[in-house]
Amino acid sequence: MFDIHNHLLAGLDDGPQTQEETLEICKAAEEFEVHKIVATPHYLEGQYEPEGELIRKKIEETNDTLQKNNIQVEILPGHEVYLSENTINKIKKEDILFINDSKYILLELPMNYIPEYLDEFFYDLSVMGYKPIIAHPERNKEVIKNPGILYRWVKEGVIFQLNAGSLFGVYGPEVKKCAIDLVDNYLVQVIASDCHGESMAGLEWMARAKRKLEDICGSYTIQFFTNAEYIINDEEIICEEPTHFESKSFWNFLDKFNFSERDNTKKD
Ligand SMILES: [Fe+2]
Fold it and tell me: If you measure from the C-alpha of residue 13 to the centroid of ligand 1, how many angstroms do you get, rounded to a whole number?
């Protein structure tokens, strides 16, 4: 397996703080048959801004240690960029590492809303020849309310990455439900661990996700894993046609209820 989203490098973000922890994660990865991992430390302006040169140096040192210890895992470069209006400028200044130096960039949306400049950002990125991968959309509150809002972007070629742990309720029941709805409607295309090193759970969830996904989407399951390989190799991913999806979530129900309440008030 290939993992395109992992915070295993020590001392760069809220992942592990020691090289020993990094090696423990790599040993767990080997055990769960994850043999290539993209290190994606957070790039969050004002908080985490690890430089590409430093990331590459840490990766080189880690890969050397892995080889010496005969651990069959290779670390590759990347960033997870928290989206801001300044992200395009950061890309132009070459401050950002793309996934294994491919055309794919891993982006994180704010948790509570969808930025109004998102379409403009996607357009600017496409003009530059790059492709966005949005990390864990199932954790965004607007997506939880209405998973179907991703449909338009999937049709436009935006890639959405599911966290394996979301399928098992690691981030709560609402995120789990959203994750299943997204898989069921082909609105996510690739799976990753988003391992932060506090435990090896992210990687274990990756290993366990296959069976879970097979229950939801049958033979399409394999695409979640092969797409990770295509991304690392800078190849085109394979997508199923997404389905229109109207959420029947509690929040949507509540929105409609409030709407009819207002209508009733008007009638009075
Ligand atoms: Fe992450």
Answer: 10
CA 196 – ligand 1 centroid, Å: 7
The enclosing domain of 126 has a CATH number of 3.20.20.140
Edge-to-edge strand order for the sheet containing 80-82? 42-43, 80-82, 104-108, 131-135, 159-163, 190-192
Number of domains in the chain: 1
Question: What is the distance in A from the centroid of ligand 1 to the CA of 137?
Answer: 11
Domain that holds residue 126: 2-267
What CA–CA distance (Å, rounded) separates 245 from 252? 13
Alpha carbon of 161 to ligand 1 centroid (Å): 11
**Hey, which residues does 75 pair with through a beta bridge?**
37
The token pair at 84 is 């801001």
| pTM, to two decimals | 0.91
In this prediction, residue 197 has a pLDDT band, given cuts at 50, 70 and 90, of confident
Ligand 1 center to 42 CA (angstroms): 7
Residue-wise pLDDT for 96-132, tens only, equals: 999 999 999 999 999 999 999 999 999 999 999 999 9
Closest listed residue to residue 39, CA positions, set 91, 106, 90, 84: 106
- Cα of 80 to ligand 1 centre, how many Å? 6
Q: DSSP characters for 13-53?
A: SSS-SSHHHHHHHHHHHHHTT--EEEE--EEBTTTB---HH
